[in-house]
Amino acid sequence: MESRKPLIGLTLEQLRHLVADEGLPRFAAGQIAKWLYDKRVTDIAEMTDLSKTARARLAEKYTVGREAPKAEARSTDGTVKYLFEGAGGRDVEAVYIPDRDRATLCVSSQAGCKMNCRFCMTGRQGFHGNLTTAGIINQILSIPDSDKLTNIVFMGMGEPTDNLDAVLDAIEILTAPWGLAWSPKRITVSTIGRLKEMKRILDFTRVHLAVSVHSPYSAQRAELMPVERAYPVREIFEMLRGYDFAHQRRLSVEYIIWRGVNDRLADADALAKLIKGTSARVNLIRFHKIPGSELSPTSQAAMEAFRDRLNELGVTATIRASRGEDIAAACGMLAGKNNPDKKEQDTI
Ligand code: SF4
User: Fold this and answer.
1) CATH topology match: 5-63 vs 71-327
2) Which of 60, 72, 331, 344 is catalytic?
3) What average pLDDT score do residues 286-308 get?
4) Of 45, 66, 169, 226, whose CA is between 20 and 30 Å from 76?
5) pLDDT exceeds cutoff 70 at 219
6) Looking at the whole model, is its pTM more than 0.70?
7) What residue spans define the domains of the chain?
8) What is the Å distance from ligand 1's center to 128 Cα?
9) Helices (H), ranges, 5-95
């Protein structure tokens, strides 16, 4: 087993500490960052503007840390699901979704999840560990189509705000000039709405935010998502009204529609009222049935009527296209086939 530590996932500041500890010149931190995130080498030996001695010293304790996916499944629509080593002996997935001139990667931030949402197989399997920043960045750098990526969404396995330090470091690496130098407009973090952590994302980054709402009513949302008891959705939107989402950054509301649960026009009215004053757009998400759950997807007609009602009320609402259904690969559908005690696919 590899005992050396990965270099990917380290910020410039962390690399500066590392080179100081190793007795290397301060400027070597910038050189290493360039090799890791711009030139994307896979071996310290390739960092040819570092002296041979420096490379040898680094290689004693560190590796680049790039790990290829363990497995992949390809959909007929071009979506590809990649399996990576996760945490606590559990694998996680990253889902590559090409769409005309865009190519999005849905990344995981945790193996399993503590949040226990009723409609989610990831929640059912419990929590097995946080991914390191290296584990997050590796998903982005090590898929074969990495160069084609235009967008990253933190919507895979786990709740990003529950592993926020690693997620914030990953965002810094993605957006810093010494890192991948992406615009934050290409990145979206999806959260169930833990207030303090959401504020950190809003105050310290410029990435887009997606909030999983799924019900405009507190009692019903608490049934579906226990987190509502700690962070009521009304308070989430009160806080969000204090931020500007009309310029530069986007706020989206994720709303899975279930038959007979939250698919009435009155529910659309309540949702519009809840998010009023935030400029949020609503993504309506088709539900994929999971074993042992009484929740079921609503009809296409009900989804369209719900969307039209929101649009009439001045809320931009769209129905998210389902992708990769033949490989159960839409964001949030995280396979557990390689995980020891899990036989079904996950879904949100
Ligand atoms: S929906 Fe998201 S937050 Fe809820 S249990 Fe699943 S992964 Fe966790």
Assistant:
1) no
2) 331
3) 93
4) 66
5) yes
6) yes
7) 5-63, 71-327
8) 13
9) 12-21, 28-33, 52-61
